[in-house]
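ok so i was messing around last nite and threw this chain in just to see what happens. nothing serious, just curious
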Amino acid sequence: MDDHTPSAPHLTDSERIDRLRLIRSDNVGPRTFASLLRHFGSARAALERLPDLARRGGASGPARICSEDDARGELAAGRKIGLALVAPGEIGYPPRLATLDDAPPLLGVRGAPEVMMQPMIAIVGSRNASGAGLKFAGQIARDLGEAGFVVISGLARGIDQAAHRATVASGTVAVLAGGHDRIYPPEHEDLLAALLEQGGAISEMPLGHVPRARDFPRRNRLISGASLGVVVVEAAHRSGSLITARMAAEQGREVFAVPGSPLDPRAAGTNDLIKQGATLTTEASDVINAVAPIMERPVAFEVREPDGEPLDFDAGLSERKRIIDLLGPSPISLDDLIRMSDASPAIVRSVLLELELAGRLERHGGGLVSLV
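result:
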């Protein structure tokens, strides 16, 4: 049982360095990276245009572009700890994660690369879990491992660590919010070392990056994106696990929720998920039966770069000003910008990309954008 798809051509050393330089440059995220690569054809060509695009977007000064020496240094430092930076389509990059619009252009992978290619089920939940919740998380994780699935989670306290510990022998994958050398929480360094023997760890962050609050939702999208579905075991209202469940639904993944006592606030979020249509889950077979039809369909990852939406950087000054004037601190949708500006979608997207590279644009959920 695996999630293998035809792999993309292996990147050359120079291509890997160019892509690493591009994604590590200021104001370049996964979506911006993909737009630049589609439009300019290569990371090297995009790097050459970054200063001009940021200037056109109104940058107050030159944006930092990752140097070749820094990129080579990151690759060398990674190799010392057994870390590989892999691109979508290469062995070690979870196939389902590669299908996301905001998939990391390069993913830091440690452990057994073949494990990353297996079908994954995410198990997440409360950090302040009950004894019953911890016991159930361990049991369902073991059962899923015995059925051939790899359990993926976030290495957090509570439910995450219970799921990882139960599947060290069968293979489990930890998704890190920081760099591979900045483990959080620190007391799980031993757990991470143990699971790397038969499993693995992934992160999109550079070495040395200490996780911040805003990094955990970014990590959560990788947990759900790499999996067939997400099992939520105990989650209070406003829990980070509910963010993972929401992202899973947006990504087209299955959402499973373990019911709990109405008197326990740690079950309030999971009980609400069931009301909203999540699959009520009391045993591993509930998960296995639900994902079986999905596994029969091949993972739709194209070897070539996806076509995506075109860009057009030939907007005149008046047209660019009209688009920017419509932006402000209140989020607005791309469709409204296109309609109100009477500009082509390609030109609006190009102006937004210039603003983003200049550090002046913030992207929100649901395709909304605002000026910062």
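not much to say yet. The chain has 14 helices and twelve strands.
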